[in-house]
């Protein structure tokens, strides 16, 4: 996620010193690395990342932790409902001369 001053990956042993300096330099002395992780995964969830994608990003094997980040995605309900409404309208308009979906499916 971060590179060192010479462009290489940071070693675990030197990370804290560099992290603390950067936080001070940008005026965020109380920002924790976990805060960035939470924001990043919350934004990913709000931008339609699947549960599996969140699990992969976080390195978790269970859905329990990934579900924590889904709470912020609840405001997407309106956008999802609108998108479904548009999709249903397109499907309906494309099949006006046919039987309704359930009746059409039964014929298959």
Tally of extended strands? 0
Low-confidence stretches: none
Q: Kindly state the percentage of residues in helix.
A: 55-70%
Average the pLDDT over all residues and give the rounded result.
Answer: 80
Structural class: mainly alpha
Q: How many helical stretches?
A: 6
- The end-to-end distance, rounded to whole angstroms, is 51 Å
Q: What gyration radius follows from the Cα positions, in whole Å?
A: 23 Å
Shape type: elongated
Major sheet characteristics = none
H-E order:
HHHHHH
Strand proportion, as a percent range, falls in under 5%
Write the layout of secondary structure elements.
Layout lengths: L11 H14 L7 H14 L4 H8 L4 H8 L6 H18 L6 H7 L1
Short description:
With 108 residues, the protein is mostly helical. It has helices spanning 12-25, 33-46, 51-58, 63-70, 77-94, 101-107.
Question: How would you characterize the overall build of this protein?
Answer:
With 108 residues, the protein is mostly helical. The protein is built from 6 helices and no strands. The protein has helices at 12-25, 33-46, 51-58, 63-70, 77-94, 101-107. The radius of gyration is 23 Å and the shape is elongated. The model has no long low-confidence stretch (mean pLDDT 80).
């Amino acid at each position: 996620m971060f590179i060192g001053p010479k462009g290489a990956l940071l070693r675990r042993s030197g990370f804290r010193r560099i992290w603390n300096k950067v936080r001070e330099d940008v005026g965020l002395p109380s920002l924790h690395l976990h805060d960035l992780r939470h924001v990043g995964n919350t934004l990913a969830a709000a931008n339609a990342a699947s549960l599996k994608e969140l699990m992969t990003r976080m390195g978790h094997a269970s859905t329990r932790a990934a579900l924590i980040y889904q709470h912020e995605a609840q405001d997407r309900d309106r956008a999802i409902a609108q998108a479904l409404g548009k999709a249903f309208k397109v499907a309906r308009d494309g099949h006006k001369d046919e039987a309704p979906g359930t009746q059409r499916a039964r014929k298959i």
